[in-house]
Amino acid sequence: MHRFDTSAQGVYLITVTPFTDAGALDLASTDRMVDFCIERGVTGLTILGIMGEATKLTAEEAKAFTRQVIQRTAGRVPIVVGVSSPGFAAMGELTRAVMDLGASGVMVAPPSTVRTDDQIAGYFDMVNETLGPVPWCLQDHPVATGVQMSPAVILRILKNSPHCVMLKHEDWPGLAKLGAIRAAGDKGEVRRVSILTGNGGGLFLPEELSRGADGAMTGFAWPEMMVDVVAAHARGDVERAHDLFDAYLPLARYEQQAGVGLAVRKHLLHRRGAISSPFIRKPGPKLSAQDLADIERLVRRQDRRLRELG
Question: Looking at the record's lineage, which domain of life comes first (predicted)?
């Protein structure tokens, strides 16, 4: 099993959950999706996130999907599993189950019920009690959770959480926040943890890397975009990183539309052969004929620009 610790870097791709056209969990397509992602160079996989329709799965389906991903991965990359829950019994049960299956760690976001710094910090004190020695990622995603975590409260959580090894930074705008947290680690005010970014499918990825992020933890139907941008930036070729990012940006932006974004991503992954069906469980969006025309235009333009870049 791959270690999941504070040295994590690269691209941990947030995966979708494949279903059949009839809405059943598609484990055969899950194998295809895992291979598709790993072949494109991702460092790790993160499953059962918000874009993974985790809330639409039964507990048994969540375990079955996790088991399939881990078996297919066969130790090639680490697997992080989202276990966020308003109740600690459910969080603890799912954590124990996925770690027994071979997951490398888990990810937790705060529930919408916590508001003040003390409430947020107190909640994560209970997360620590629930997870014990399991390495975990703190997900800061206020657009989805409605919970605003200041740099001060994140640093407070990190100081109180010896097994929190990563921050998934998804605040938007959040460059100054990311820089402040990284600077605190560099100054020794708090232990240094991995920071992977998830803003809108990587919509600010080059800038986030320049502010000290170690990579990305988000989703996009072209995971090679994030892999190549992170690699170019890591070797010091910042202009190349920006050029590559710019080529993908129009389609990445289109994929991040509120409401319809998951349908766009699943359509594109189906179009690329990564999953057998673009089915989304209810409640979920559907693409119009004009949406599909937009997507085809953007794909053509992206292909042309990538050829120009070589």
Answer: Bacteria
Residue 23 identity (one-letter amino acid): G
HSE, side-chain direction, 13 A CA sphere, residue 199: 20
Cα 60 to the center of its chain, rounded Å: 22
pLDDT at residue 20, rounded to an integer: 98
One-letter amino acid of 290: Q
Cβ atoms within 10 Å of 258's Cβ, excluding its own: 7
146-173 per-position pLDDT tens digit: 999 999 999 999 999 999 999 999 998 8
- Measure the CA–CA gap between 21 and 18, rounded to whole angstroms: 10
> 217: annotated binding-site residue?
yes
Cα separation, 75 vs 63, in Å, equals 18
Instruction: Tell me, letter by letter, the H, E, C secondary structure of 55-88.
Output: HHCCHHHHHHHHHHHHHHHCCCCCEEEECCCCCH
* CATH number of the structural domain spanning residue 180: 3.20.20.70
The pLDDT value recorded for residue 199 is 83
CB 266 within 8 Å of CB 17: no
The pTM of the full predicted model, rounded to 2 decimals, is: 0.96
pLDDT score at 185: 96
Of 197, 231, 235, the closest CA to residue 216 belongs to 197
Contact between 117 and 156 under an 8 Å Cβ cutoff? The reply is yes
In a domain? residue 207: yes
The whole-number average pLDDT for the span 81-105 is 96
Question: Quick check: 37 and 13 in contact, CB under 8 A?
Answer: yes
306 within some domain: no
Domain residue limits at 166: 10-235
pLDDT (tens digit, 9 = 90+) per residue, 241-284?
999 999 999 999 999 998 899 999 999 999 999 999 999 999 99
